[in-house]
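Here is one chain, start to finish.
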Amino acid sequence: MLPWAAGLALTLTCATALAQEATPATGTGTTDAAAPIEVQAIRVTGVGDHPREQIDPARLQALADARLRALGGGTVPAQLSFAQLQQIADTLTQAYRQAGFLVARAYLPVQTLGLDQVVEIRVVEGRVGKITVEGTRRYDDRLIASPALALQGQILRQQDLQSALLYTRDLPGVSATSVLKPGANPGETDVVIQASEERPLQVSVGASNYGTPSIGRYRAQLGVDWNNPLGLGDHLSASYAYALDPANTWQGSLAYQVPIAGVDGLSASASYTRSVVNLDNGAFAALDIQGPTQQSALGLDWKFVNSDAWRVQSWLHLVKESSRLQGLGVLLSKQKFDVAELGTSVRHDDRRLHAIDLLQLSVRGALDDDSPQTDYLYARHDRHFTVARLSYTRLQGLTATQRLQLRVNGQYSDDTLTPLEQFSLGGPTSVRAFPLGAALGDRGFDSGLEYQVDAPGFASAASPFGGRAWGQLLTASVFYDYGRVYPNGANRAVYDSVTTFEGAGVGLSFRLPDWHGLSFDLAAAKPTGTTKPSDGKDVRYWARFGLTF
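Its structure:
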């Protein structure tokens, strides 16, 4: 029996951002919040149905029932204090927190305990009120807030808010965080997006020896990136590379990308690349072979999954490719065709295993081929070719300063391809013990296994560069590369039936982000298999540096 004539009033003050109860009615009997009361059951109200997060009325009711029995020593009715009832409410709140509901809370509303001895625990799941933006300079607030606007009126989940912020951060030159504030209406929480913007214009310069003796051993590079030039969240980039020793090759490119309003992660892109080669040295000097290669593309890209753990993007690009080479005033080769490419990329950040996986798969097919039937340099290619390409990288953390990286790049086709579509083997991003593009094939792959360690033996020591730890600036590596290419059809008369490259080496990488993004990469690699480089080098060095202003 209850010791009070009119029951017991139970009250709890909720968080400011949640709904507030009306002033409790005065009970007719004496109440004592510290005294235990007899509770037959708990009734949980206000729970929505959220199957993705495994939150629904039945699950939350079962959780409350289990907690009631535990506090009652396994039997009901149970003698519980107000603090113990609050523990049951806290258990429900914790279930919501673990499911990603940022402001959901279970609480004890003002109530009079009836003869059925049932105590109500009410849940306010918390909905999004206003979305506001702070800190913008050149960007329109509506553009920054756009990914989060769909959350208004919805229950506030951590995953949804994180995804909206990630879409905002995809805008060029923008970083964003969020602050939650009490809303104007009961149960509402306002979201304030605090944005910061980088400089709209960045210029990068660099140099490398990522070339060959025929097209220039060294390259000087200049790049320009312009964030939000038209105020649409767009991005314009341009680059130019000039070859040295000999100075006979250059390449320029221009690319533009703009988000499409109304669909998060969807953007349209256009690009143009042109290079000109002049083989005026070595074995080809007498032929004076020269000519341009160009590529233009239009496309749609859609990042339709965007979370801390998973990012998935697909694209459809239409590409026009052409190349022309002439020597001694005679047209030796002309290739011109249209290609459609459909692809998907996936990034997975595995926090539990301290790893990052990157997977990319694409299929390219020729739509139209205007190449002449006669070609004096290359074998006749299939005019309606299909190519599948795969790229996979896994970066596995071992300790705080050590990592293991595995990469595999491959291409498969049953068709005879032109050099523009063939798989290239050798170079600083392939098998590093061999020259750039030392072997071509219609099918092929390259792979590498690399052990990386930050400033081995002195990672925690302070550097003279602003006192930053050496482990943040310097990385050493040991690697092994392996790759193969195979020709198809008419190309078998030109290339070996299989070409295998393999090699091992060491690398060093230095980064100084506080000083114009200074970067320097150095690698040395030695062939380890039976195939020897055509230029006879037993050890090959690759070097690159860059600055950003």
